[in-house]
Amino acid sequence: MVEFSAAGTPLTRRDVDEVLDLIGAEEAALWAVLAVETSGSGFLPDRRSKILFERHYFHRLTNGRFDADHPEISAKSAGGYGAAGAHQYDRLRIALQLDEAAALQSASWGLGQIMGSHFAKLGYATPVEMVETFARSEGEQLTAIAKFLIAEGLVDVIREKNWAHFARVYNGPNYAINRYDEKLASYYERYKNGPLPDLTLRAAQLLLVYEGFKIAVDGTFGPATSAALNEYQSRNNLPVTGQLDEKTSAALFT
Question: E-assigned strands of the chain?
Answer without folding.
Answer: 51-53, 107-109, 114-115
